[in-house]
Predict the 3D structure of the following.
Amino acid sequence: MSQKRERTRQSASSKRPKTNACPANCPVQVLQADASKPSPPISLFPDLDDLMYPLTGGEFLEDFFRKKAVHVTCQEGREKEHAEQRVSGLIDEMFGLDPEMILRETSSENIFLWLQGKGGSKSKLETDSRQIRSIEVADVETALSLHNIGKHATYCRAPPNVEQRLVASLLKATGLGCGQYDPSGENLASMGRGEVETFISTDGHLTNWHYDFQENFTIQLSGVKRWTIQQGTIKDPVRGCTPHYAAPESVESQLKAAYLFDRKFRFGFPQTNVTARGDVVSIDVKPGDVFYFPAGMWHKVETLEPGVSINVSLMASNYAAVTCQALQHFLFKDERWRAPVLRNEKSCAVNHLKALLRELPSMIKDLERNGGAEAILPPAVSFPPRFERVDDNEDTMEEKSDSDNKKNSVSDDDGTDGSEEASFLNEDKDTILDPESFDSYPTDWSFKLKVGTKITMSKNPLAALHRLEEITSFYNSCHGESEDKSAYVLNVNFAGNEMHHSAIRVVFRDVTGRFAQMLYKKERNLGDFTIGTVVTETNSHLIKFLAFHGYATISAKEKENIAIN
């Protein structure tokens, strides 16, 4: 039996690491790995059981995540063994920590070097007031020279192979953004985002007090850093606070953001009972150690021994943003809300807005009646997707096998894959999915339809169904290309961002030739609608496919006939 499975079987009390409980005013829980057992290695696809060992993932999420920092370290004298067990695989993926290769293979467009300000001077708060200036360098040779000769600490993102896997795994494990992740960074509607920062430190470098708005997992690969931390006063900040940078242009925007939640907030290094609370604690993070710290926690970092660390920095859309984006989509359907703001002799902007705001509560109720939260967060975005790595050089998705693509797509009569059909408009050639063979549903989501049952389908007011030929025919006709009459494009929740990126976009073919066509005609004639239909062997797969991707919801009164977990 594996170590992980054995721990999972244990009771909650026996799983708890034997360590002193962390006082309420202490910002960090320090845990030591069990010296009698080998610590699990940290892979490119870590789960929380392995990453936060000896905590289980469940314990970490319940007791510490978004609440308190956790430092996982080893017993004195076991540092070398601990590092070999934990991070040797990551070191291999990071080119043996060769600075030149790390800089050449970075995901960043440019490399950043931190110029340490002179000082050691103390402010009136008895705090080392040194700041850093960040300079951006495009050339690897120049960056290496500044690092090696000038002894400047260097920062860049990890190689794509490392960054994309770690971010995808930890977004899924923590549930941030429901595990949604677009490695290309192009989809503005993706709820989960992240990057892996690589720090190549130099002796004595100090990154002074600041806090971030991301959730952070730091993994020390080599060298030693001393972290000093204190709990902030703002939970889930929307901006960081960065007095460690010599960047006065950032002060006003950061101060405004903090003032939303804390009217006592003052820009600068932390002040107990003003911008910080509880104890100030220092810990030494050594090779193989993992250090988690939540958004809003003040920290400063001093290099005791030069080395390399990586920090998985995660963020997610908040409920305010998700709700307002969906509401904007919903309001755009009304021409009065789409109207430009006007004030002239014929129009008064304030009076127009007053009238609209009086009706807003009823419109929100209307959205709630027509799907509400399920319309905004259908299953396809409330469960993490299968990971697919983006190759920056070739713009391809590498992790999805050819067999997966073929299994979920429709073959034409000539034996070619449906995704290979000619399209002048979309040179990337959309994969056209077949709902009958689609098998990418999450394992912990089930939607079982009983054949012969009459169900009620309510169209999602944030969804739009188009024939594929509507999108391709104008340009394809100029080139004499044939059109696919049975393929459809479904877009869900797209009008809440400037580029109209869809939260969900899927292309599928209705092999029955009837059901999708019926829905398409209903939408063209009625807009949003509710229909009753009988589940058959023919349409059951398509109904499940559309429900998963957010085209329709099942009304509550019919749910006794459908098993939904």
Summary: Residues 85 and 241 are 36 Å apart (CA to CA). Residues 1-18, 120-126, 393-427, 556-565 have pLDDT under 50 and may be disordered. The first strand starts at residue 28 and ends at 32.
